[in-house]
Write a structure and sequence with these properties.
Among the domains are: 7-36 and 134-221; 60-97, no CATH class. α1 (7-15) crosses α5 and α6 packs across α8. The strands form two sheets. The chain has a three-stranded antiparallel beta sheet. A two-stranded antiparallel sheet has the order 4-5. It is of the alpha+beta class and 230 residues long. The chain is built from nine helices and five strands, in the order αααβββααββαααα.
């Protein structure tokens, strides 16, 4: 069973979309490598058809666990606050959302689909801007899951735990990253992928190089090359 979706898998999933909206959502998640929250936040003002770019607001939510007395940072395992020493009966959970903007290139075919879809849905306007997708996260997950099911691709193996997991919008982001690394796993390729994905940590991006290049398997096989009798 596969760990990540490959290009052919994503093409099958996209071909099983029952509407232009669903096809476009799947295509954007894969071709931009964006998070589902970022895709759903795209407005028509974010799309530059002349420059062939899409402006993405990189969103990442983190939970901050705080002491209710002195507001010091806590880990989930803490029973006493490392700052004030008080016993922790409850922890304040505060969510912080980091926002950074990125301008991403996009291919011509996806732009054509975007223009067609926008022209068909000019009435979907919120305040002073027009959202491309007027759906929530739950519906987006349903669309990806249902299309994957019709394509016969329902489960993937989590490379960290070995457990099975379903096909979700984030698996399309993973597929984009692995596809990019298979084509260019150089240092410059990693840097560009990190910038494209909006990762603040290089290590987060580097994990895709290991998967795409099958570095562990190559390293292990090299241990026995020239020692075939073993």
């Amino acid at each position: 069973m596969k760990t990540y979706l490959d290009l052919q898998d994503v093409e099958k999933i996209e071909s099983c979309a029952i509407s232009l909206r669903d096809r476009l959502l799947i295509r954007l998640l894969f071709h931009l490598g964006c998070r589902v929250s970022e895709a759903l936040a795209i407005t028509t003002n974010d799309i530059d058809f002349e420059q062939e770019t899409v402006t993405i607001l990189h969103l990442k939510t983190r939970s901050l666990l705080l002491c209710p007395i002195c507001k010091a940072r806590l880990a989930r395992k803490h029973r006493f606050c490392p700052e004030c020493g008080q016993r922790i009966k409850e922890i304040i959970n505060r969510e912080n959302t980091r926002r950074r903007q990125g301008i991403l290139p996009i291919d011509k075919k996806t732009l054509i689909l975007l223009k067609k879809f926008i022209n068909q849905n000019e009435n979907v306007i919120t305040e002073d801007y027009q959202l491309v997708f007027h759906i929530n996260r739950h519906r987006a997950w349903q669309i990806v899951r249902d299309c994957a099911s019709r394509a016969g691709i329902t489960k993937l193996v989590n490379p960290e735990t070995g457990r099975l997991r379903g096909v979700s919008p984030h698996r399309l982001r993973d597929a984009f990253s692995v596809h990019a690394m298979k084509l260019d796993d150089s240092g410059e390729g990693l840097r560009l992928l990190q910038e494209h994905l909006g990762h603040t940590s290089f290590n987060t991006t580097a994990k895709y190089r290991k998967i795409a290049g099958e570095e562990h398997r190559s390293w292990y096989n090299n241990l026995w090359d020239g020692h075939k009798k073993y």
